[in-house]
């Protein structure tokens, strides 16, 4: 089965924009004053999407030859185009997306790119556009190499990745409740709301792309609890609508932390340990700074609270 995913996404663009407009209108009538949408947040999301798309166009020029090399020299099978190979490609890529997504919450280098998607304190369909131009630098593309090894040509790999991401647009909404039996198989808005929440019970859960079966198999699934509504954003809020700051703030923090660390072991942890490790280091540093300020008679207000560097675990 062959199709042009880029043309499909181009055709879907008016659908995405229309859905955002409908959701904003619908929520303004059903939840007035909820603040689920704001112009500044939505425009920031749109700017991040344009930056991400531009970076992706450039990245594919370098990445597709990598896939082509593995396909030409390392592939295990030669798979004929058809429904059977399409289903295999779809399932394999969705599993690899789960691996990538979970790693992006457990490895700070990957989190530095992925944090952009989580840094808004709102969740709506425009949040799906909130992506990072740094994904190619972080290495997202490397997670799809096994597809080329299996025997899928580069064009099909690119297509299925784009289709998977296009599906995920529709789970970024608060306008849709639970969807019954579908939640045993597919990622849904309720399942993905949990993923974007910073509540303790929801952090680092529900990594699904299209199929939620991976979360259920690997123990990362948590259901949305009506008694505990999700609180969106990251644990250390970003407090900016500047798309450049949203893109680079965690990279700057990560490299600054690595420069401050003593010993190569700790410097590597600053780059590759779970984001929670950095959060604990930030907290210990801030406590030490407060104690030093108190010892010298400097109030915490005079010292300022801006010494925190970096973003901790996802919301």
TrEMBL record:
One of its GO terms (molecular function) is oxidoreductase activity. The chain crosses the membrane at residues 7-25, 58-74, 81-100, 141-167. It is a multi-pass membrane protein. Pfam families: FA_hydroxylase. Keywords: Lipid metabolism, Membrane, Oxidoreductase, Transmembrane, Transmembrane helix. Its EC number is 1.-.-.-. Residues 86-220 form the Fatty acid hydroxylase domain. It is found in: Endomembrane system. InterPro entries: Fatty_acid_hydroxylase, Sterol_desaturase/TMEM195. This is Sterol desaturase family protein. The lineage of its organism: Bacteria, Pseudomonadati, Pseudomonadota, Betaproteobacteria, Burkholderiales.
């Amino acid at each position: 089965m062959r199709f042009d995913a880029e043309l499909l996404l181009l055709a879907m663009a008016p659908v995405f924009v229309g859905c955002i407009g409908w959701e904003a209108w619908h929520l303004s009538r059903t939840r007035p004053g909820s603040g689920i949408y704001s112009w500044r947040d939505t425009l920031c999301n749109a700017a991040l999407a344009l930056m991400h798309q531009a970076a992706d166009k450039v990245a594919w020029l370098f990445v597709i030859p990598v896939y082509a090399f593995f396909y030409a020299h390392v592939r295990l099978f030669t798979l004929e185009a058809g429904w059977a190979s399409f289903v295999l490609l779809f399932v394999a890529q969705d599993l690899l997306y789960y691996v990538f997504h979970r790693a992006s919450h457990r490895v700070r280098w990957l989190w530095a790119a992925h944090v952009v998607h989580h840094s808004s304190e709102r969740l709506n369909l425009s949040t799906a556009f909130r992506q990072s131009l740094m994904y190619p630098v972080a290495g997202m593309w490397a997670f799809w190499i096994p597809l080329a090894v299996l025997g899928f040509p580069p064009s099909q790999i690119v297509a299925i990745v784009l289709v998977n991401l296009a599906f995920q647009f529709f789970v970024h909404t608060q306008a849709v409740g639970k969807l019954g039996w579908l939640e045993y198989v597919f990622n849904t808005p309720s399942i993905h709301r949990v993923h974007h929440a910073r509540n303790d019970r929801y952090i680092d859960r529900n990594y699904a792309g299209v199929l939620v079966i991976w979360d259920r198999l690997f123990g990362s699934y948590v259901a949305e609890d009506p008694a505990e509504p999700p609180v969106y954003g990251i644990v250390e809020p970003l407090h900016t609508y500047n798309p450049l700051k949203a893109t680079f703030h965690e990279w700057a923090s990560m490299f600054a932390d690595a420069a401050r660390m003593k010993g190569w072991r700790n410097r590597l942890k600053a780059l590759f340990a779970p984001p929670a490790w950095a959060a604990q280091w930030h907290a210990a540093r801030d406590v030490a700074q407060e104690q030093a300020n108190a010892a010298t008679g400097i109030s915490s207000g005079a010292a300022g609270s801006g010494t925190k560097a970096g973003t901790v675990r996802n919301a």
